[in-house]
Structures are given as structure tokens and as C-alpha cells.
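Lab meeting, action items carried over

1. Structure of the two-component assembly. Owner: GW. Status: complete.
Input record:
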Amino acid sequence: MKIIFSFFTVVLLVLLAFLGLKIANLYYLFGVIIPYAALAIFIIGFVYRVMKWASSPVPFRIPTTCGQQKSFPWIKQNKIENPSSTWGVIIRMLLEVLAFRSLFRNTKTESRDGKLSYGSDKWLWMAGLAFHWSFLVILIRHFRFFAADVPSVIHLIESLDSFLQIGVPLLYMTDIVLVAAVTFLFIRRVVIPQVNYISLIADYIPLFLILGIAISGILMRYLFKVHLVGVKNFAIGLINFNPVIPEGVGVIFYIHLFLISSLFAYFPFSKLMHAGGVFLSPTRNLANNSRMKRHVNPWDYPVKVHTYEEYEDDFREKMKNVGIPVEKE
Amino acid sequence: MKLYDGGKIIFGLIIFLGLITIPFYFNAGKAVAPPKPKLDTPVIQALAVKECVKPKEIMRAEHMRILDDWRNSVVREDDRQKIVIGGKEFTKSLQNGCLKCHSNKKDFCDKCHTYMAVNPYCWDCHFTPKENKS
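Predicted assembly:
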């Protein structure tokens, strides 16, 4: 049910763009207004969410650690898994962001011969890594549509990505890897009962949306060719705030663009915000230095204290009278 | 609004915004006109009927695939039979076919390829035709 709903939401988006252009000729709406609006929602929404996180205090050190804490000099500290300095945290965060280190430790629980057994499960880590890196390469590759002089780095990435020289236009490896990885991530949610049980519409929609973007892009490159020079002319018009709608660019391009706009607009409202959130996770980005530094809770209420000395001052005579020992005569 | 570690977080946000808006300022204000490949070579001008192998729209989208098919049929299947379209013969060849009419690589092929940042590997093997500098 959740899968069907998510799937048809994306199908509806495709149809909306298709009919909007074929029947209503809304080229300006789908080509100019919606992309600008989506980008504005993305930027404002992203900044808003991060600022909201930044306004919550994190008074105490709560890193999740899985290594030896800094202790006596003869005990070897695990400086990455249990960092006590800023540098340790930086390396830990770099490994987390670039290599998904915590996901590398993903385990699987199974019942074997009536006993619970735990085993390493690297598939999620591998698919996740393949997916994110391919997506990044694809995103960077698209820069050739926006730059008047395409920098040589982009050429380099592109030639590495297509170095197998399969077919024409040359097949990009990242296209295949992205689709395969997203498909795996989707099948995983369907097949594994526990994962299926906790999966929500908000988990399926990004998968279908990204799959839709990838498929429309691949179809556009290899099957339903669009007028590429027109596409670049259009992209450069957009970024110079001087939009032009070129003649004869196929509908599939606008479907691709509309799905991307949808993803951008959806981003700040969705779990995709983990892109910013990973940097702000207190269980990752804090040094475990509770034993070296005192961390004071900023919202501690100023409690009025009445010490024992003051108490004794108030009641000294009465205490003496009934024979209770006092500290000060 | 009180921020905690606000300095670091705002610094990160600025880097993020700087990265995602690269397209807007990388070539800001540099107006690039879309390329117009030139068709005024002597051979084309001498033609009575100015027709390529396929109509313009198809050639624009599929020329690379046509060349690839030709290469496969000539190099791998040893099929050098000429293609006849509308009573006219076309040699299945880049240098002896396409470039006979389109002798202006710089003003024809390269125009769009440079604009789109495409580096076709044709010229890894084929000679680049000599052109008169005009």
C-alpha cells in the first residue's frame, strides 16, 4: 500500500509534467517558475532546518563510542572511535561522511537452529556508498550544462566515468551503478520483513523519485534524444536570470527537470535532510572528554540552596537543648 | 534565537551554499550564444539538392549512432556497400563520406562539441582534416 502510493505519486508527477506540456503548453511554468521556486524552497528550507537544529543546546557529551576511551598512558586509546580531541572528531566525521563508517558495522540478526546469531552485513553499506558517490559524480557531471567554459576537472570526471567506451553516446558507469544501487535499496525494503515493517511512505518516495530522475535522464541520453544545444542554452539562461525557452527540446527533458524540481522542493521536508544532519549529530561530532572537562548545562535552573551550616545556624540552640550533636559550638 | 556552536554551523552553511550555487557565479554574466554549425563549404554549395543521409533533426540527435553503425558494418562485417538514398550514393565513412561535404570540422563538428563539452573519440584514430585558415 505504502509502496503503491509512493510509486503512483511519482507517476502522477511525470503525468503532470507530460500533460502540462502536451495539452496546456505550460513551458514557462515547468521550465522557469517551478525550477526557481524549487531552488528557493530548497535553500530557505535547508538553512531553516539547520538553524533550528543549531538553536538546540547539546550540553553534555553523548558520542556513541566503540573503542577504548582515553585513560592511563599505558592503555592504548582508540583515537578515532573514541576521540578525545578535535582532530580525532574531524577524522571520525570525515570517515563517517565520506565512507559511511558507522554503516560498515551494520549487522544482521538471524535465528539459526533456534539460536540467535549475529553476522556482519555489508550490503547496505556497499549499496549506500555506491549510490551516494554515483549521485555525486552525476551531479558534478551536469555542470557542463551550466558552464560557458567547462573546467578540465569536469572533462576528467566525464572521461573516467565513460572510459569503458561502450556504445554511443558513451555509456556512463555511474548511470548503471546508481540505478542498480537504488533498485537494491528499494528491494531491501520490500524483501527484509523487519525493514519492510518500519518503512514509511517517506522512505519510498525519495527512492522512486530518484529512480524516476535517473531513468528519465538515461532515456534522454540514449533513447529519446533531446535537442542538447537547446538544453544548454536553456540552462545558461536560467542561471543568468534571463530564462529562454528554446524551440524543439523534447518533453522528456521537462519531465526530468520537473522530477528534479520536485526532489529539491521536497528535500527540506524529508529525511533527505540527513545531508545536513550528519554534520550535526551529537552522537558523532562530540569529543568524548567528559573526564577531562566539565560541561555545564546551560538551562540549569538557579536553585536556591540551604546548606547544612545555615540550617545549623537556624536551629543550633534547639538542637543543643535536645542533645543533638552540632558541628559548631 | 540563541545558537549553540553558531559560528561553526554558520561557517558550514556558508560553504554549503557556496558549493551549490557555483553554477550561478562560475560564468556569471558571460552570455554564450548557442552555436550555429556552418554549412557553406564549397562542396555543399555546389550541390543541387542539399540533403544529408537523414533529415536535420535525426542527424542532430543520431549522427553518432549512424557513424557507429557504419564503423561496425565496415570494420567488423567487411560491408563497404554504399548507401543509396534518393538515388544518391553515400560512402560509409567519416573521412571519405561525411567530411567530403562537411570539410569544415572546426566550423561544423567542433562548434557544438565544444559548446557541449563533448570529446568524441573519432579523432583518436582518424586524421583531423586540414583546413584553410580563414
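2. GW to write a short summary for the group page. Key points so far: Strands of chain A lie at 107-112, 115-120. Chain A has one domain: 2-321.
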